[in-house]
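Researcher: Please generate the 3D structure of the following complex. Treat every line as part of one assembly.
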Amino acid sequence: MNVSDLSAPPRGQGVLIPLLLALLVFVGLPALLAGFDRGYFYQIANLALIFVLLSASMHLVTGVAGLLHLGHAAFYGVGAYTAALLSTKFGLGFTATLPLSGLVAALIAFLVALPTMRLVSIYFAVATLAIGQMLYLVMLNWVELTKGPNGIIVTKGLELFGFSLSGRLATYYTVAAVVTLCVLAIGRLSHSYYGNALRSIREDDQCADAMGVSTARLKMEAFTLSAFFAGVAGSLWAHMTGYISPGDFKFSESILILAMVVVGGLGSLPGAVIGALLLILLPEGLRAFGDFRNIMVGLVMFLSILLLPKGLLGEVSALQLARRQLGAAWRNTVKGEGIGWR
Amino acid sequence: MTARSSLLKTASLAALVTGALAGTALAADTVKLGYQLPLTGETAQYGQDFRKAAEIALTEFNAAGKPFKAEIVFEDSRSDAKEGTNIARKFVDDKEIVGVLGDFTSGVSMAAAQVYKEAGLPQLSQTASHPDYTKISKYQFRNIATQAQEGPYNAKWMLSKGYKNIAVIAEQTDWGQSVVSGFTEGVKANGGTVVFSEFFNRGLKDYRSLISKLERAKPDAIYTGFFYEDGAQFLRQVQQLGIKTPVYSTSAAYSPKLIELAGDAAEGVHLTSNFLPTDPAPHIQHFVTEWKAASNGAVPGQFPAQAYDAVRIMLAAVEKAYPNPTREKVRDALAQTKDFPGVTGKTSFSADREAEKELVKVEVKGGAFVPVAD
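Model: Done. Output below.
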């Protein structure tokens, strides 16, 4: 595929599709939710939206820049803890904690990125794994600040400049508006020359370097930006649930977000969104199957990787990327010799 | 109108009518409870036990010729706060559910509690031990002795045995935190000294560095806050290092699996419990027999017994609120629970909805838990 095609908006994305999507999110779904008037549906809609944001933010690093990120949930946690601490210790409301959570998460991401961003392939993945674990252990063990495993009860609900938005429909609209704005921003970032520069890292970082693209700086920026959006998602979660503890941000959450990006399709923002919706809605939808639901979710993921190696809408195959990440030793057909490990 | 659409209409009408009938039939003589618990995931072993215990309690209740039948809706939370909150919303939406049991971990119980608080649905957890759990609202109850109660009790017990300098270790969870704080307060109040205290992360495989660090403080005895998996690992390594310092623990470690996994390394461990499967009292023997029948002859531990009692306490509260039990009436009935004769001893709820339990002192002797006088 010609790389410059990728910066153009995907086909069909004139005005019609975004308009229809906006209608769906801001008119259709709320009408349905209000019609059913079930707290359960509101809860799932909000949770799905938060994970759409998490998945979209990871898409920037893993999908577009092609860097395996194994610690994303930790920045989600930093955002949630920032919101919870600012709100319980300094009495700040959601209006203030929302941007601050993003900024603190981004700042921490920037600081940990400084020494690690020159790493490539599997070494980068291991570094993000370590960063994620480190932040998780800080949340768990720095009892004086984070109250450790006791978690924090957040008494302040969603509000905007003092107006309470804690009603069911108001909560949904707040979450939907924040997530939509963030996803739009991520969309603009990934479908632009900037996004193409990130893609060049994914396709061949040495070549990009040789062409004068500052790969270390781009990686750092992508990493920091993605942490910002994850932090925003954390703030939404903290104010929405009212109680957070380190368990919400452990390694398995990072893997869940990674799975969303992969199932949806690496490099595709709509894919990341659909992946998030799928992996949040499916386990809930399958509750009727009792203990088998996890197996069924696993089966869906397995089959999607097996039958759709590029995910639902991906630009690149996850397997291709994994091979490149896991070893430079993988080679495609060269001079009549078959593919395989060197 | 086509034949197909009219057929569809008739079918949906029929479904509606039967649904409505079933609805009224349910309302007449079936009361629904919700139980959220980890049936899959890392803590599934506990959730599966709770379900088994709850089913025993439920079958008994429905066979006892009460004026109404009870039904429990089990939902799997995977010990995940996201899922726990979803389930809470689902239970709240179901107007027939008048009371909820669970969750297993404090974290999930507390996240779900925010929903129950808002909706006014009583929640009784068999295990949530976080000090702030019952403070969330008047709808949160627990059927477990807190460490604020157990810690000082164990502190007095150890000091009475002449152990003045005590080392404390506990898992790094909200519960572990309460183990250390509850016990340390008890020791200080009764003239002892805590010479060492440290936390370890759950699932730690190698305790040797922790043990040798602890031994450097030269304690007379070690007090531990762990569950059976970590406990067995710890005790084996204490034995391997040839350390003879006596080990004391909480009721959370009271499980036959502790002895099964630790083998003779568990010998001589002292702990408290509020459930003794060897107690000859008929209601306890009844539960033990039922449990053995349902689990290939295995003896129940402390947690399933707590779940069994929690379900029975909830059912008793519903019975008290009957006829026309509402969530509010069930809550009030729960709050009035006094001297409930459970398998984990007599249980009363204090004004702040904490279970007041009697504790029994136990020692591991000859591969079994044996009650001791002191």
